[in-house]
């Protein structure tokens, strides 16, 4: 469907035809035009008008600390206006609710957990699809000896049709035992807390608040005989339930009415709504509930009228919400919220935002459902239950899709692999479990026993970037999923680019990659073994920096002389790598063998010379790396030079002479076959040379008219470089490739799709490993040995 047809069939799209103009004005100056942003549930994009208005206010106003000013001061008035604006978004006012500003929604949950009057009789109940921030509150009730319960949605939500389809009751999945206490009758009231997300982070499910929250609200005045929520301690004259709603995701595209649902507490993060500022959230508290909270855990500047400095005989807290606000609030940051809401509520409206994002997400899902492989295998499995029956029972979904992708054989493709490939194509989305472990396990089909399995424990959890298998059981059990989420500025073009990516890169590449073997067995013909020659030799004195092309080079007992002997480190003495900082490739070292000097060169900077055999005066400290290698860390002028060249603090470190390993990640030598390079770059519209793979040794056929198999090196066991020393190298494995191959060594720019090609053609079955080249070590020590360009190569089986 082209754009014009889409607009005609979706009149709710685009804010009356202004979306492209809005995007041009608000985002084009600070957001790359070729990047597709589909992670608005993580954070949405901040707008130019909000930044301009906020910084104009800071440039033209003098704002003092609110604690230093009178009640009619400018800072206080602006803050009060901002708080009333926030409360008006919730259809309430300061008469009924108060605000405590926090770092984010998580901090608001943590704060509430310490203020809430939990006791040994208390119960904390939360929905199964709650964010970790809500789940974490249970730690406080446990400390007080209370219990907690996990409430689940009806089974139909998870597409599990056990029993009658008409049974849409909430379920109690688990209840912890409270601490054993003497059985003492008491008429003293105690307090329990129920928490739910208004919209969950996993798939955007929005619960029916009338059925889920309203019953708790109604118990304030009336005792319900048949309480519909399966908590352990039902509401009574002594058991009082309060309610907490997590609105962090919900508020990005839809308002929450505290007039309609006057819950006791709301938590939110403002960056979820308009991207800026980060580090600012809020805990909104019903004024009637303030008197129940425990303000005596702590006091600080601003929360007390007077304290006795000598003993605790006198502490006078401020009244109302002010007794809970310790220290100076971030008043300049808070004022930026006013400009953010101006765009959301004045130029647009929550109603138009909701309609706009909903039509886009529905269109995206429908287009994805149409995608199939040539054998009829569907591409997508969605983790939701969108249906008319669901809507009739009060449920709905926000603008989020959660799913996994199949390959052509019906096996799940690693979600982490999809994330890498999407990033390689400038598409930003998120994979994992999204800090919602209950929803993830419910939809992915795992269980508590599965959770304790070793394979799962080393798999995919929220926030991890470590490599590992995230699909188990021969491709049938995923440990994570893919989340695509939209924001108010999402456009038709974003969806089209995503669908194009799925068609061209997944359906025609990654999804059928398992048909291709990861290696080609070597041919038994003798001429292939005898007619290979060494065409290029490279050394990399500084790890991750540019190479030096040489005609011949001496060996040490481990590797090439000076190869990966130095490395660049950051202020925390962690190695800086090409993946983290592609600009390293533009530091071009050279070696003056006659003077024993390492010379560092960079465009528009003077050269820096290091005396290789006389660098002791440069050493300022020593560091032990995780792999057991010890390095001397340089200080002084080299720090200044590298920091100026790279734009961040950096220094140089050199491995010590007694280290038994080089700074190479694995093998001492990396060999690349030129025939394999020709194969991998075929039909790839890029200039790809063997330098992309950062080899030490490059081999090729000796005669142009010869032909032999690409990737034959995969099955080599040993090889001999035929010269005066006949140097034997043993193969220790294939070289696993990462996105560094996308970095053009001549420019330092990352604009290639080579990594995607490797994942398509060179990925091992059921893993994230895409291999290219072989890793080698010396079979023994060679005295005074050299390797030369032109040396013949003999393969030993």
UniProtKB/TrEMBL annotation:
GO terms for biological process: Mo-molybdopterin cofactor biosynthetic process. InterPro entries: Aminotrans_V_dom (IPR000192), MoCF_Sase_C (IPR005302), MOCOS_middle (IPR005303), PyrdxlP-dep_Trfase (IPR015424), PyrdxlP-dep_Trfase_major (IPR015421), PyrdxlP-dep_Trfase_small (IPR015422), Pyrv_Knase-like_insert_dom_sf (IPR011037). Keywords: Molybdenum cofactor biosynthesis. GO terms for molecular function: catalytic activity; molybdenum ion binding; pyridoxal phosphate binding. Residues 640-796 form the MOSC domain. Pfam families: Aminotran_5 (PF00266), MOSC (PF03473), MOSC_N (PF03476). This is MOSC domain-containing protein. The lineage of its organism: Eukaryota, Metazoa, Spiralia, Gnathifera, Rotifera.
């Amino acid at each position: 469907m082209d754009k014009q047809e889409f607009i005609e069939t979706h009149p709710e799209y685009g804010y009356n035809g202004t979306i492209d103009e809005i995007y041009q004005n608000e985002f084009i100056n600070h957001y790359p035009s070729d990047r597709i942003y589909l992670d608005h549930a993580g954070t949405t994009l901040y707008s130019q008008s909000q930044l301009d208005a906020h910084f104009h206010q800071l440039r033209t106003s003098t704002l003092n600390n609110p604690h230093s000013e009178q009640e009619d001061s400018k800072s206080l008035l602006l803050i009060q206006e901002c708080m009333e604006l926030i409360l008006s978004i919730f259809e309430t006012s300061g008469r009924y609710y108060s605000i405590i500003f926090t770092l984010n929604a998580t901090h608001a949950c943590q704060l509430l957990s310490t203020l809430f009057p939990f006791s040994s009789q208390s119960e904390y109940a939360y929905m199964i699809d709650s964010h970790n921030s809500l789940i974490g509150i249970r730690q406080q009730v446990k400390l007080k000896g209370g219990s907690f319960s996990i409430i689940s949605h009806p089974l139909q939500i998870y597409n599990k049709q056990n029993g009658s389809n008409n049974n849409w009751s909430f379920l109690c999945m688990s209840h912890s035992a409270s601490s054993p206490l003497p059985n003492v009758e008491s008429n003293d009231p105690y307090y329990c807390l129920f928490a739910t997300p208004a919209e969950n982070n996993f798939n955007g499910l929005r619960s029916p608040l009338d059925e889920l929250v309203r019953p708790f609200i109604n118990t304030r005045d009336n005792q319900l005989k048949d309480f519909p929520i399966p908590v352990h301690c039902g509401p009574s004259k002594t058991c009082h339930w309060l309610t907490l709603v997590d609105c962090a995701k919900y508020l990005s595209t839809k308002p929450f009415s505290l007039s309609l649902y006057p819950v006791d507490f709301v938590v939110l993060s403002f960056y979820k709504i308009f991207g800026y500022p980060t580090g600012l959230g809020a805990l909104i508290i019903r004024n009637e509930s303030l008197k129940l909270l425990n303000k005596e855990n702590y006091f600080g500047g601003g929360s007390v009228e007077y304290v006795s400095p000598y003993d605790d005989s006198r502490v006078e807290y401020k009244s109302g919400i002010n007794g809970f606000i310790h220290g100076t609030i971030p008043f300049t940051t808070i004022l930026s919220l006013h400009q953010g809401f101006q765009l959301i509520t004045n130029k647009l409206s929550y109603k138009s935002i909701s309609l706009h994002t909903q039509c886009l997400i529905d269109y995206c899902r429908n287009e994805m459902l149409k995608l199939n492989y040539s054998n009829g295998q569907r591409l997508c499995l969605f983790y939701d239950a969108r249906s008319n029956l669901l809507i009739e029972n009060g449920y709905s979904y926000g603008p989020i899709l959660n799913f996994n992708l199949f390959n052509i054989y019906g096996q799940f493709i690693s979600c982490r692999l999809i994330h890498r490939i999407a990033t390689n194509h400038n598409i930003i989305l998120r994979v994992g479990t999204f800090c919602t472990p209950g929803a993830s396990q419910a939809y992915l089909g795992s269980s508590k026993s599965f959770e304790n399995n070793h394979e799962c424990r080393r798999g995919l959890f929220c926030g991890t970037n470590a490599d590992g298998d995230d699909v188990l059981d021969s491709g049938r059990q995923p440990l994570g999923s893919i989340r695509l989420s939209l924001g108010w500025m999402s456009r038709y073009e974003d969806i089209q680019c995503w669908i194009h990516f799925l068609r061209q890169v997944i359906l025609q590449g990654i999804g059928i990659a398992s048909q291709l073997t990861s290696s080609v067995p070597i041919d038994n013909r003798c001429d292939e073994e005898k007619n290979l020659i060494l065409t290029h030799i490279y050394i990399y004195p500084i790890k991750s920096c540019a190479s030096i092309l040489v005609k011949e080079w001496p060996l040490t007992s481990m590797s090439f002389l000076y190869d990966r002997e130095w490395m660049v480190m950051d202020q925390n003495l962690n190695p800086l790598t090409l993946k983290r900082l592609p600009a390293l490739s533009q530091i071009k070292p050279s070696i003056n063998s006659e003077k024993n000097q390492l010379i560092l060169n960079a465009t528009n900077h003077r050269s820096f010379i290091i005396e290789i055999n006389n660098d002791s005066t440069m050493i300022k400290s020593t560091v032990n790396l995780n792999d057991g290698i010890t390095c001397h860390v340089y200080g002084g002028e080299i720090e200044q030079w590298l920091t100026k060249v790279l734009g961040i603090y950096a220094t140089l470190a050199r491995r010590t002479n007694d280290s038994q390993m080089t700074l190479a990640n694995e093998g001492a030598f990396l060999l690349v076959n030129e025939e394999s390079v020709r194969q991998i770059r075929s039909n790839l519209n890029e200039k790809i040379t063997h330098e992309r793979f950062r080899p030490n040794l490059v081999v090729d056929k000796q005669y142009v008219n010869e032909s032999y198999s690409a990737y034959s090196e995969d099955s080599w066991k040993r090889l001999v470089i035929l010269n005066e020393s006949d140097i034997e190298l043993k193969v220790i494995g294939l070289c696993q490739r990462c996105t560094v191959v996308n970095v053009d060594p001549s420019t330092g720019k990352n604009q290639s799709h080579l990594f995607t090609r490797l994942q398509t053609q060179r990925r091992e079955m059921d893993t994230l490993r895409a291999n290219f080249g072989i890793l080698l070590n010396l079979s023994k020590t060679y005295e005074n040995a050299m390797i030369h360009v032109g040396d013949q190569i003999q393969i030993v089986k």
